[in-house]
Amino acid sequence: MSFPLSFNVLGWPPLDEAAMTRQTPVQKFYQKGTFTFGNRLSPEAFHAAPAMASPLVKGHEACPGCGIVLAARHVAAVLQLAKFDGAMRILDQSGEDAPKIFERGGDVLCLCYDTEGAGGKPGNLFAAGKGVQFARLHAIAYVATATVADLHDLENKLTKAMGLGGVRYLHIHAPCPAVWGTPPRDTIRLARLAAESGFFPIFEAENGVVTGSRRIRHRMPVTDYLGPRLAKLGPDDTPKLQDLADRNIIEFDLLPHPGEH
Amino acid sequence: MSNDAITEPKIVRSVRPVFLDRLPPCNNACPAGENIQAWLYHAESGDYESAWRKLTEDNPLPAIMGRVCYHPCVSKCNRAEVDGPVGINSVERFLGDEAIKRGWKFASPKKETGKRVLVVGAGPSGLSAAYHLRRLGHTVEVHDAGPHAGGMMRFGIPKYRLPREVLDAEVKRIKDMGVVIRLNTKVENIRKAMQDGRFDAAFLAVGAHLAKRAYIPAGSAAKMLDAVSVLRSMEDGEKPLLGRRVVVYGGGNTALDVARTAKRLGASESIIVYRRTRAKMPAHDFELEEAIEEGVMVKWLSTIKRMEGGKIVVEKMELDDKDFPQPTGTFETLEADSAVLALGQDVDLGLLEGVPGLTMKDGAVEVGPDMMTGAKGIFAGGDMVPSERTVTVAVGHGKKAARHIDAWLGDRTYEPPQKHKLASFDKLNTWYYGDAPRTIRPTLDAVRRQSTFEEIVAGLDESTALYEARRCLSCGNCFECENCLGMCPDNAVTRLGPGLRFAFDYERCKGCGICAQECPCGAITIVPEPA
Questions:
Q1: A257 lies in a domain?
Q2: Are B97 and B63 in contact (CB under 8 A)?
Q3: Interface contact A36-B508, CB threshold 8 A
Q4: What residue in A sits closest to B484 (Cα-Cα)?
Q5: Does residue A261 sit within a domain?
Q6: Closest-CA distance of chain A to residue B43, Å
Q7: Least CA distance to B509: which residue of chain A?
Q8: Which of B19, B33, B164, B167 is most exposed by smallest CB count within 10 Å?
Q9: Containing H/E element for B231?
C-alpha cells in the first residue's frame, strides 16, 4: 500500500488492513439529537482507527493535545479506508502556495491544517485562512472548512472531496496548545468555540458557490474563544475579530433557521 | 523524519486519565435504591424486558411505583439544568405496564435455603421484603389481617391514582414466585406466631392504620369521620356517605386524597381546612394543584373549633415568628354535612406486647441500621418505623431488611457496597446532548376526572417512553459514545466491545486530558501519574 508523498508528510506508517476493515455491530440510533462522536446504538460505527506505531504519536514529538495530530489521524483513516491514490498536496497555512496550485488546476486534493499559528499571533489568518479565500476566488471544484470539534463532518467532507474531480481543498481548523499557550485538554473545546462564535465558519462551496454550512447551536462572543490569547491582542483587535465573526455569521448563514433542531 | 533506529521515546506525563463510575443523582435520591441509570440504559435501546429485569432487581412493584411514587429521582435529575428532567417515573410506569401486558415473570430462586421467614403485613414493605427474601432462596409466608393484599396501597391510595388491576397483577407475580400470602390472618403475638410456624426470622411491616384523633366538640347530629376509614370503605363496596358539603381537616397527602375522593363521590363543595400556609403544607404541591383544578377549595391558616348540626366553626390562625400557627380569636362558620379528620396515623403495636428487647419511641418501633429491632431475628420496616411514610420508602425498607435478614440467617453481616462519588452537574459536558424537551404524561381533563375514579394520569406509549428514556444523560456512567476513542490525538483509547466500554493504552497516552474534558457524562477523571 503506497500513499502520496504529500500525505505522508506526517510520517504515517503503513496500516494494518485488518484493523481498518473491522466492523462494530450496527445498532440502533441513540439519543435524540446526540452530538457525540459515535455511540453504542449508532448505525455509524466509527471505522476502526488505524493502529499507529509512529514515533510521532507514541513519543513526545507531537505535543499533548495536538490538534493537527488528531485531525491527521482521521484524515489517514478516511484515505486509507478508501484506498485513495489520487494526487494530494498539504498546503501551508500561510496560504502562500495556494494561488499557484489553484491556478494550475488539474485533479488534486489539497489539505491544510490551520492552527492560526503561522504568524505566532492569533487572528493573522482569521476567517478560515487565506487559502479558503483564494479557493473561493478561484471558484475551484470544491472548497470546505472543517474542525477537530466535528470529526464526522471532517470525514464526510474529505470523502466528498475524494469523489470529485478538479481542485478540491479542505481547510481544517486544528488548535495548537503549544503556540496558543492553552491547556492541552482544551483543544476540542476551543475548536468548538471558534465555530460557535462564528470566528471559524464551517461551510462548503462548489465552483465558488456556498452550498452548505454548519449551524451554530449556542452563539457566543469571540472573546470566549480567544480566552487567554486576548492578552496578546491589541485593544482594537477584539472588536475587529467580533465584527469578522458577525459578518461570517451573515455571509455563511450560520444561525439556525426556525424549525431547525 | 528519519525512520532508521527508532528509539522508543519515553513519554513524559505527569497525569493520566482513568475511567470511573460515578453515582447518578437519580439513583442517589431513590428511597428504594433503584439503579435508575442502569435500567434506562436498556430502555434506550428498546430492550424493555432487560430494563424491567434490571429495575426489578431493586423494586418488584414498578407499575405501582410508576404511579404513586413522588419521584425524588426526577427532582434531582441533572437534565433539569439542560431543558427539563427526564420523566423517570413515567418510563418506570411504562415498563411496569409493559411487563403486565407481556406477562413477564420473576425467576424462581435457583436453590432453596430451607430457612423460613414470616413477613407480617402485605403492604409495600412486606411485599418487597417477601420478594427479595424469596429471590435469595428463603421460604416466605406473608400474614395480613386484611381481606386483600396491598395494605395502604389498597386501603389508603384512591383508585384514580392506582387502579386495582395493576396492584393485583404485581402482587400475583410475587405470589407466583412461591411467596405464600395468608389473608385475614392477623398476627396477635409475634413470638407465638413465629414458634407456631417454625420461622427463623420475621419482618414486621404492619403499617400505620390507626387514625390520629383530635378532640373537637361536636353535637350528636354532627357527622365526623376519619380519613383512614373513609378511604378504606371505598374498597369495601359500601361507599361512605359524606353529603354535599364536605370539610377535610389536615394538610397531608391523605387530606388531599379524601377531598378529591369526596368530589368524585358527588360533593358539590370539598373544602380542606389547614392550620398553616401552602408553603408549610406537607402534601406535595403537584397533588394540591391537581386537587384545586378539580375544584377542591382550601382554607389556609384555620383550625376547626367545633361542629354542630350542619355547621363547622373555624378559627383563623396566624403564624408567629417561629412559623407556628397561633389563634387570632376570629371565628368563621362553614356549612358542612360531614367533617373528615386527616391528622396522621398511628401504628397498631399490639402484636409486639411482651417481646423482650424490643423498644418503641413516639409510637413507632425502633430499628438499627440493619432494620433489626431490639429483639434478635425480628426486623421491621415501612410506616411502623420512624421514617417518611411513602410507598417508595417502604419498598426500600423491605429490600434493605431482606439483605440483612439473609445475612443474619447465614450468620453473616451484610456490608452494603461502597457508594461511588456523586455525578454532579459540573462533571458533565452537556454540549453533546441534543435539546429535547420532556414528554408530559397526558392528563385526563379536569371535568372528566371530577366525577370518575378513572386514572387521572395516562401512561406513555412506546415511542414516547423510548424518547424519554433516551433523554437520560447517563450521568457518571459510560454509555459508549466513543468521544474518548474518536477525540484522542494519541490514538490511545481501545474499544473493548459492545457493553465492555474502553481502555487506555498508557504506552501512547500523553495525558492531554481531552478525553476527560470531552466525556459527556463525567466517566473519566485525571489523576496524578503513579510514582
A1: no
A2: yes
A3: no
A4: A37
A5: no
A6: 11
A7: A58
A8: B164
A9: helix B227-236
Count of H-run helices and E-run strands, chain A: 10, 6
Could you tell me the three cell numbers for A93?
497555512
Asked if A188 and B487 come within 8 Å (Cβ–Cβ), the reply is: yes
- Count of positions (residues) in chain A: 261
Identity of the residue in B11, B467, B481 whose CB atom sits nearest the CB atom of A37 = B481
Residues of B in contact with A56 (CB under 8 A): 1
Please tell me if residue B186 touches chain A, with a CB cutoff of 8 Å: no
Answer for the pair B63, B99: CB distance below 8 angstroms, yes or no.
yes
Which whole-number Å values give the CA distances from B412 to A39, B229, B404, B444, B448, in the listed order? 42, 43, 9, 51, 55
Which amino acid, B530?
A: P
Contact of A101 with A140, CB cutoff 8 Å: no
Residue of A nearest to B495 (CA): A48
B463 touches chain A (CB under 8 A): no
Please tell me the predicted confidence (pLDDT) of residue A8.
32
- Please check whether residue A66 touches B, CB under 8 A: yes
Handedness of CA A138, A139, A145, A151 (dihedral sign): negative
**Inter-chain residue contact A30 with B470, CB threshold 8 Å:** yes
Tell me: ipTM over 0.85: no
pLDDT band of residue A213 (cuts 50, 70, 90) is very high
Give the pLDDT of residue B43.
Answer: 93
pLDDT at B424 over 70: yes
pLDDT tens per residue across span A32-91: 446 787 755 554 444 444 444 444 444 446 789 999 989 988 888 888 888 899 999 998
Distance from CA of A236 to the nearest CA of B (A): 31
pLDDT at B199 exceeding the cut of 70: yes
Residues of chain A positioned with their CB less than 8 A from the CB of B508: 57-58
Please count the structural domains in chain A: 1
Q: Does A258 reside within a domain? A: no
Helices and strands, counts by H and E, chain B: 18, 21
- Cα–Cα distance for residue pair A32/B207, rounded to 1 Å: 43
Nearest CA-CA distance, residue A75 and chain B, Å:
12
Residue B33: phi, psi to the nearest 5? Answer: 65, 30
Q: Residue B426: name the closest of B301, B517, B290 by CA.
A: B517
Any chain A CB within 8 A of the CB of B487? yes
CA distance A222 to chain B (A): 18
Which structural domain, as residue segments, surrounds residue A183?
A: 3-251
Of residues A115 and B1, more confidence is placed in A115
Q: Is the pLDDT of residue B162 over 50?
A: yes
Q: Using a CB-CB distance cutoff of 8 angstroms, which residues of chain B are in contact with residue A38? A: 481-482, 485-486
Using the Cβ of A38 and the Cβ atoms of chain B, whether some distance falls under 8 Å is answered with yes
Question: What are residue B326's DSSP bridge partners?
Answer: B318
Closest partner residue to A46 (CB to CB) among B6, B482, B507 is B482
Whole-angstrom distance, CA of residue A133 vs CA of residue A129: 7
Q: How far is B490 from chain A (nearest CA, A)?
A: 5
Residue numbers of A between 138 and 197 with CB closer than 8 Å to B = 148, 151, 177, 183-189, 192
Average pLDDT over residues B151-159: 93
Asked whether the beta carbons of residue A65 and residue B435 sit closer than 8 angstroms, the reply is: no
pLDDT value at position A129?
Answer: 62
A145, A114 contact by CB (below 8 A): no
Cell of B301: 391558616
pTM confidence score? 0.86
Give the Cβ contact number of residue B50 at 10 Å. 15
Across the interface, do A37 and B486 touch by the CB < 8 Å criterion? yes
Instruction: Tell me whether residue A92 is in a domain.
Output: yes
Query: What is the number of alpha carbons within 13 Å of residue B328 lying toward its C-beta?
Result: 16
Which pairs with CB-CB distance under 8 Å and at least 24 residues apart come from B331-336?
B331/B305, B332/B302, B334/B245, B334/B247, B334/B271, B334/B273, B334/B299, B335/B245, B335/B269, B335/B310, B335/B311, B336/B243, B336/B245, B336/B246, B336/B247, B336/B271, B336/B307, B336/B310, B336/B311, B336/B312
